[in-house]
Design brief:
single chain, alpha/beta, 8 helices, about 190 residues, elongated
């Protein structure tokens, strides 16, 4: 567990310096790397832009920009992998908004070390799984898009040069190898050509 924890880079955001200090002590005792601290939502967003942490532990109620708004920006701009909100409020409206923003955890103050560390571990693990799934989906989408473009180019080559489907495919593949371009790029050129 120590090796995994040591790799987790954390930003703590809370307008109470004592809370930040307590959280930092707990995290560092567990071998987490606290890379930054912020007292308001604007500062935590800016720190995330600079440091791209694995985790942001953030209070909901902060001056200037609250934690929910900051979390929304952090996820929208892909500035951190995981956000866990810390709050004195357990009302349903806060929980629902946190879920809709994409927050991975929600802990009610006072924070107990025994619940904090397991929550962090589970939230970070879940975020890594989601990140991998998103990457896999993006790859599959790109492959499908590439295939569609190549199919269109094959059709155009077959029509213009009276080739078989296999011959048109081989033509694109050979040009790809000769010109050191992807098959998609060759297909795009074929489609642009009159």
């Amino acid at each position: 567990m120590e090796d995994a924890a040591r790799k987790i880079r954390v930003i703590i955001a809370d307008d109470e310096p004592i809370t930040r200090m307590d959280l930092k002590e707990i995290l560092e005792a567990e071998q987490y790397q606290v890379v930054g601290e912020a007292a308001d939502g604007f500062d935590v967003v800016e720190l995330c832009k600079q440091l791209h942490p694995d985790l942001v532990l953030m209070d909901i109620k902060m001056p200037l920009l609250d934690g929910l708004s900051a979390a929304h920006i952090i996820f929208y701009e892909n500035l951190a992998d995981t956000v866990i909100l810390l709050t004195a409020y357990s009302e349903r409206v806060f929980i629902d908004e946190a879920k809709s923003v994409g927050v991975s955890g929600y802990l009610v103050k006072p924070i107990d070390e025994k619940s904090l560390i397991p929550s962090i571990e589970l939230s970070v693990a879940r975020s890594k799984e989601i990140k991998k799934l998103k990457k896999d989906i993006a790859k599959v989408s790109e492959r499908l898009e590439n295939r569609g473009i190549i199919e269109k180019a094959k059709g155009k080559i077959m029509e213009q040069h009276n080739m078989t489907e296999q011959d048109a495919y081989d033509y694109i593949r050979n040009l790809s190898l000769t010109k050191n371009l992807s098959m998609r790029r060759v297909a795009e050129f074929v489609l642009l050509k009159n």
